[in-house]
Design brief:
heterodimer; A: about 350 residues; mainly alpha; ABC transporter involved in vitamin B12 uptake, BtuC; two-stranded antiparallel ribbon; 15 helices; B: about 500 residues; alpha/beta; 6-stranded mixed beta sheet; globular
């Protein structure tokens, strides 16, 4: 096995293949849909990626730690609505203050999730299923059947989605897309270079061992849910900016897209492995499919959710069938320069048996 | 012995570039205990997995009662009366004993006849002379009882060949003795038993025939009466093994830990001892005697309810592992997989995990080069056999995993090191290495508490031995008064306390 293959981990192979699948999808829809290769297509996909990617980044952190957050859709809706309400009432508020406000709101809801999970010892899936309903109910009651409408919002916010950061030939990179990319990159660096990130992976791969190693498991859990909530807050803010009109059902069902993006992006649903870049690629694939299927008349819109469901199942199935074997193959091949054949053999046998069992 | 019930001829199995089994032929006779020996990775486990249908051999054949058979899966194996019992019993904790015994039966009809099931279960247990309530859930059973249930399960399936893979690894001496009785009674009933163990005493106490595997090849097979433990060991390792490592004396420092009247309700009561710097205090006792619980209390995982702990001269109240680590207490668990290591992570990441704050740049980022240096130095110092420290821990052998766990805790430069079953389930060579490391650490002035079920190990490696029984401290034995007999007598509850130095 040559040096090149040895340096590529199976997870990276997964990311490479995602890039390939996205390219194939674009080529396919390009041949099916008239005028598909238009800057507007790119912008549509990119704007929906921006919202989803920020929320998926938060979800990725949670899933790496062997947890899940089903309340993300409700938090996005909640922050979108109430940030909008506050901006309607005090239009003079600065953009930075508004985005911080949204993050604090979302972060607060995330802290509630984290406290219940860490200190109440309630499984994450149950806790966030409960808060999914509760946060939405608080939103519905707080809204008093009034919606936020675009015309009442400050103009800087309404214009934000079309604000360009810079231009590549015909393709314009919007500020919101840049913001999402920055968030993903910041957290990718954080999980790689901060002890906090290492702890996340350690807790996800073996929570008991993490506790035994003296790691602050509960505190880390709360911090991750707080960050996930705050990122949902940014997502809510972007949602508000993009759609302008916010009803009480805003972002309902978003958890399906977010979990799909994370899982398709190769984040192990059992914790301990995955990357934010992977989740971003997953988001891009899902947003591309969503936006393209919208314009592809062959499949009825009612089937679009089914496509998402299918993608989740496909991703997890390939994970358990292909990636696992690939990983053990990779583990074996990187050990070929073992100095002693006898101990080498011992290790391999143990490993093979573990994979089989 | 008449005819073999099960024979394998020229069985070979290859994994990638590794010849796990190389043309192995063996015969298994009814009413015989056939001991299989070999270091980790010698091919024992692969052989068992081929016999139970988990793997298929690449070549060779299996003959059962003179007919060639094909074992495609464990259901096939059961059909031929071949069953295996593993080191960790496979028990369904929420089902009761009777349900566990009959879990694999498929011909008991569609509707459960509870009364008949309980009666049948009781009949099987009494045949084996096991006293267990068949209606109680398996949840609360001791490891030994769980294994008894596993054996009853095998018997209920009319087993003809029973494979036991390190059945005593987690059992205390007393529990092992009960298991041996079971094994002997099965042998009397004509069952052919394949017995795998790292413990030589057991192999020679039970085995009628001893076969040694090394590097996938059958090295020797002979009646136990014609083999000596020394010969078997030298077959296993293929080289002459020197004297086993024993404790080398070193200077003692100040008193590091003083434990007074430590009590945890319903678990242990009034435990008193002290450990000096540079001293190894052995903790002996049956499994469930509270040894490990005292260790867990000292490490803050399950804090004690009353009593006092003085560490390095100061009274401390340890409530969490974080606090214990901060004080300089390290606890190397007996459960590598469950509590010890993050299997999907690399050697390097595992080693630095408890002390990540020591690897930060001024900006708070991780210095991965420093981490690598640390990991590399432990790899060399503890002789972890791996090409590099990026290797995923789950891919290592048990002995190497144990060394990674030791490295992880030595890296915090502990003042007190608690070792729980430090050599459990690792091969002879790695065991000697771990013992050598313990000697070196004591010589460096670390206070060591070594909890172990391996009586010869406790005797060889401890300066003093604290014996526990059912949550009570039975006494502390030092050098001269400590012998297998005295320690075991105390652990079994007939201690003549005048033997131990009263504390």
């Amino acid at each position: 096995m040559n040096q090149f293959w040895r340096n590529i981990r199976p997870e990276q192979l997964r990311e490479l293949s995602l890039v390939l699948i996205i390219a194939l999808a674009v080529l396919f829809f390009g041949s099916q849909i008239e005028n598909y290769y238009h800057p507007r297509t790119f912008n549509r996909i990119a704007s929906s990626v921006a919202i989803l990617a920020v929320v998926a980044a938060g979800q990725t952190l949670v899933v790496i730690m062997r947890n899940i957050d089903l309340s993300v859709g409700s938090i996005v809706g909640f922050t979108a609505y109430f940030t909008g309400r506050i901006l309607v009432n005090s239009p003079e508020m600065s953009p930075v203050a508004a985005i911080i406000l949204a993050m604090l709101m979302g972060g607060g809801l995330g802290v509630i999730n984290g406290l219940i999970i860490a200190y109440g010892n309630v499984p994450a899936i149950i806790t966030t299923l409960g808060t999914l309903a509760i946060y939405r109910a608080v939103l519905v009651n707080g809204a008093n059947a009034e919606s936020i409408i675009t015309s009442a919002l400050p103009t800087w916010l309404v214009d934000l989605p079309r604000l360009n950061a810079f231009t590549f030939g015909e393709i314009q990179i919007r500020a919101v897309v840049l913001l999402a990319l920055i968030v993903v990159i910041i957290f990718q660096l954080a999980v790689t270079f901060l002890p906090w990130g290492r702890r996340l992976y350690a807790i996800g791969s073996n929570p008991h061992a993490a506790e035994m190693a003296g790691l602050p498991v509960k505190r880390t859990t709360v911090s991750v849910y707080a960050i996930c909530g705050a990122l949902c807050g940014i997502g809510g803010f972007l949602f508000l900016a993009r759609f302008g009109t916010i009803t009480v059902v805003a972002a309902q069902g978003m958890e399906l897209q977010v979990v799909a993006a994370v899982v398709v992006g190769g984040v192990n649903i059992f914790g301990g492995s995955g990357s934010l870049i992977g989740a971003l690629l997953g988001t891009i694939l899902i947003a591309t499919l969503e936006q393209s299927l919208l314009r592809w008349r062959v499949i009825s819109e009612f089937w679009r959710d089914a496509v998402l469901g299918l993608l989740i199942l496909l991703a997890v199935t390939t994970d358990s069938l292909i990636l696992k074997n690939l990983r053990s193959w990779w583990g074996r091949s990187t050990q070929t320069d073992s100095p002693s054949p006898a101990t080498h053999q011992a290790e391999i046998e143990v490993e093979i048996e573990e994979v089989a069992s | 012995m008449t005819k073999p019930i099960l024979s394998i001829q020229d069985i070979s199995k290859r994994f990638g570039s590794t010849q796990a089994l190389d043309s192995v032929s063996l015969d298994f006779y009814p009413g015989e205990v056939h001991a299989l020996l070999g270091e980790n990775g010698a091919g024992k486990s692969t052989l068992i997995k081929i016999l139970t249908g988990i793997y298929q051999a690449d070549s060779g054949s299996i003959t059962f009662e003179d007919r060639p058979i094909v074992v495609r899966n464990s259901f096939d194996a059961q059909g031929h009366g071949i069953a295996a019992i593993h080191q960790e019993p496979m028990i369904f904790p929420d089902l009761n004993v009777a349900e566990n015994i009959f879990i694999s039966h498929r011909n008991r009809g569609q509707i459960v006849n509870w009364r008949k099931m309980y009666a049948d279960a009781e009949e099987i247990l009494s045949r084996l002379d096991i006293s267990l309530d068949v209606r109680s859930p398996a949840l609360g059973l001791t490891l030994a009882s769980q294994q008894a249930v596993e054996i009853a399960k095998a018997i209920s399936l009319d087993v003809k060949v029973l494979i036991m893979d390190e059945p005593t690894a987690s059992l205390s001496a007393h529990e092992s003795e009960q298991l041996f009785k079971l094994v002997r009674s099965l042998r009397q009933q004509g069952v052919s038993i394949v017995y795998i163990s790292h413990r030589m005493e057991e192999v020679f106490a039970l085995g009628d025939r001893v076969s040694v595997l090394r590097d996938g090849k059958l090295i020797s097979t002979a009646p136990a009466s014609e083999v000596t433990p020394e010969a078997a060991i030298s077959d296993m390792v293929g080289r002459q093994l020197g004297d086993t490592i024993t404790r080398t004396d070193n200077e003692r420092g100040e008193t590091r830990l003083v434990v007074s009247n430590l009590t945890k309700n319903n678990v242990f009561k009034d435990v008193n001892f002290e450990v000096k710097a540079g001293e190894v205090l052995g903790f002996a006792g049956l499994v469930g005697s509270g040894r490990t619980d005292v260790g867990l209390a000292l490490f803050g995982i399950a804090p004690a309810d009353s009593g006092s702990i003085a560490f390095a001269g100061e009274t401390v109240n340890i409530r969490s592992p974080q606090q214990a680590v901060g004080l300089g207490i390290a606890y190397v668990t007996e459960d590598r997989r469950g509590l010890g290591l993050s299997m999907p992570m690399s050697i390097q990441s595992n080693i630095t995990l408890p002390l990540l704050q020591k690897y930060l740049t001024r900006l708070g980022l991780l210095k991965t080069n420093d981490e690598r240096d640390t990991a590399e130095s432990f790899r060399k110092r503890l002789n972890i056999r791996t090409p590099n420290v990026d290797t995923v821990v789950g891919n290592l052998s048990g002995g190497n995993q144990q060394k990674v766990m030791l490295s992880k805790w030595l890296n915090i430069k502990p003042k007190l090191l608690i070792l729980d079953e430090p050599t459990r389930g690792i091969d002879v060579g790695a065991k000697a290495e771990v013992h050598q490391i313990i000697n070196e650490l004591a010589a460096e002035g670390i206070a060591i508490i070594m909890i172990s079920s391996d009586l010869p190990e406790v005797l060889a490696m401890s300066d003093r031995i604290l014996v526990m029984r059912e949550g009570r401290q039975m006494g502390i034995f030092s050098g001269e008064s400590a012998s297998q007999e005295s320690v075991m007598t105390a652990a079994m509850g007939q201690a003549n306390l005048s033997l131990g130095e009263a504390v």
